[in-house]
Design goal:
Elements (H helix, E strand, L loop, with lengths): L1 H33 L7 H19 L1 E7 L6 H7 L2 E6 L3 E6 L5 H4 L4 E6 L2 E7 H12 L4 H26 L2 H13 L18 H4 L5 E3 L3 E6 L3 E6 L6 E4 L7 E7 L2 E6 L2 E6 L6 E4 L4 E7 L2 E6 L5 E6 L6 E4 L3 E7 L2 E8 L2 E8 L6 E4 L4 E6 L2 E5 L5 E5 L7 E4 L3 E6 L4 E7 L5 E8 L7 E15 L2 E9 L2 E8 L5 E4 L5
Antiparallel strand pairs: 1-5, 2-3, 3-4, 4-5, 6-7, 7-8, 8-9, 10-11, 11-12, 12-13, 14-15, 15-16, 16-17, 18-19, 19-20, 20-21, 22-23, 23-24, 24-25, 26-27, 27-28, 28-29, 29-30, 30-31, 31-32
Helix pairs in contact: 1-2
Length: 489
């Protein structure tokens, strides 16, 4: 029973006075330096608490050993030379404590009792201290030799033990974010045209951002690799970027005279004429990049799809919402984030600083868009739904088969059906009324990708054969489909 009480005493003191303060200090320091949490799963926190307590109890549990000594009279001088302090001494008894091993000697019971009788010395106390004291008495090892060896062993063991935690944490990613914010710079500062202007229409953004338009030009992606600028009639196309391979271009956004886009793991920008091309971000693959006001918003798999924001010049990168997002969109000064909360799929609305959360949908939702008082989204099994904003009613099922892409328009909802056997590319393009009725086939094209709305038309890409893509345009007013000539011709 005494042994169990001794172990419990060590465990409680170690948890409350050592482990928890150090854990809180680590979290606070990490948050202060990197402006984000360390991202360590609670299972690891509990696991390492158990490992720490097992080590602590094994090292400091109460133990009793005996040593043979010739005399008791000279022990106090020998003990003090070994960095132990004599607290009390009687004729055949002595109580000492270590003056090293801070902070453990201040938090845990550190008193050692010595009893001498018939040239035998019984030593009782924490195992770690009586082991060192016993070796000092026998003259086998000095404290400083042991201390240097213990320090090296401790460093090695700490590295091995903490390696899984470091791998699970965001330490490397956080250091990269800090480095990015320290060294990022641009030759020309860009400011938002308005605090409430988006860099692209939401229906384009949620479909990969393969096209964007200004009053004078239309920009679009050709063959995934090339970036093209053309006039509004699609008659004078020219390449801004032309490549044979590499990561695809997507997430086009326009701010004033600047065109923003992603290319693999980078966020880049250039003037609308293709000049002053520069990279703003190159840490990981950004997803669903959207520009709203003065902010570039995106999620990244490197940090479990948390939501990030930086300014239009690639500076002030910060974790906005520490959440594992399925998808997110921006509408009317709010971030609409689809994620799992307490085991339930929800859509939660946040302000642009990642605060003021409010659940607006109790459903799994991807590619969520807002149109004419409704949320439109792809739910389970990629079925298309809509829910009335602000109403506690069941969602309406609009398309009861797999949808690869969709977009609400003034003319109706345009959508492509999935072909699961062909990598979820679209099979045919259809249009229906916004309430799910009057469905009609617009194009029987197969392997449809990259829906994008420009003016009263929808652009899309068709893979005619392996590696060969054709860009087409559907006029939503007339229903006519045209093949757009490649800018290469």
């Amino acid at each position: 029973m005494k042994e169990v009480k001794n172990w419990l005493n060590i465990a409680v003191r170690g948890t409350v006075l050592i482990y928890l303060p150090l854990a809180l200090l680590f979290y606070w320091s990490y948050q202060s330096v990197f402006s984000m949490g360390p991202g360590i799963h609670w299972i690891f926190i509990v696991l390492y608490l158990l490992v720490f307590l097992r080590w602590l109890i094994a090292k400091y549990r109460h133990q009793c050993i005996e040593e043979e000594v010739q005399s008791f009279d000279s022990l106090d001088r020998l003990i003090e030379q070994g960095r132990f302090e004599v607290l009390d001494k009687r004729q055949a008894e002595m109580t000492v404590r270590p003056t090293f091993d801070t902070p453990f000697n201040l938090i845990l019971d550190d008193k050692i009792d010595l009893y001498y009788a018939d040239e035998s010395l019984r030593i009782e106390g924490p195992k770690h201290y009586i082991t060192i004291l016993s070796k000092n008495i026998r003259g086998e090892e000095s404290l400083w030799t042991r201390k240097s060896m213990s320090s090296l062993k401790f460093i090695y063991m700490a590295f091995i033990v903490l390696l899984p935690v470091l791998m699970d944490s965001n330490l490397v990613w956080s250091m990269n974010v800090l480095r990015h914010n320290t060294f990022s710079s641009v030759s020309e500062e860009v400011e938002a045209v308005s605090e409430t202007v988006s860099g692209n229409a939401l229906e384009n953004t949620m479909n990969g951002g393969y096209a964007v338009e200004t009053d004078e030009y239309t920009f679009y992606v050709e063959d995934h690799m090339d970036l093209v600028r053309t006039d509004k009639q699609f008659e004078n196309a020219e390449y801004l970027i032309q490549r044979e391979g590499g990561h695809g271009i997507r997430n086009l956004n326009v701010v004033g005279e600047w065109l923003y886009f992603t290319k693999g793991e980078t966020i880049e920008r250039m003037k609308l004429d293709g000049s002053e091309h520069t990279t703003l971000f190159s840490l990981s693959f950004p997803s669903e990049m959207q520009i709203y006001g003065n902010g570039i918003y995106f999620s990244t798999w490197q940090d479990d799809n948390s939501i990030y924001r930086m300014d239009l010049n690639g500076q002030n990168l910060e974790q906005l919402i520490d959440i594992r997002a399925y998808s997110f969109s921006i509408h009317d000064d709010r971030l609409l984030v689809s994620h799992e909360k307490q085991g339930q799929a929800v859509v939660e609305s946040f302000d642009l600083n990642g605060e003021d959360p409010e659940i607006v949908l109790d459903s799994y939702a991807e590619n969520l868009m807002v149109w004419d008082g409704y949320y439109y989204y792809l739910g389970d099994e990629s079925l298309l739904y809509r829910s009335e904003i602000g109403e506690d009613s069941d969602p309406e099922l609009l398309v009861d088969t797999h949808v690869s892409a969709y977009m609400p328009t003034e003319q109706g909802v345009v959508f492509a059906l999935s072909s699961l056997s062909e990598g979820y590319s679209g099979e045919g393009i259809y249009m229906m009324s916004t309430d799910g009725g009057d469905e009609e086939l617009l194009s029987a094209s197969s392997s449809v990708e990259g829906l994008a709305k420009v003016g009263d038309a929808v652009l899309f890409t068709v893979e005619e054969s392996y590696g060969e893509h054709t860009l087409k345009r559907i006029d939503l007013e007339s229903g006519r489909t045209d093949v757009l000539e490649s800018a290469k011709q």
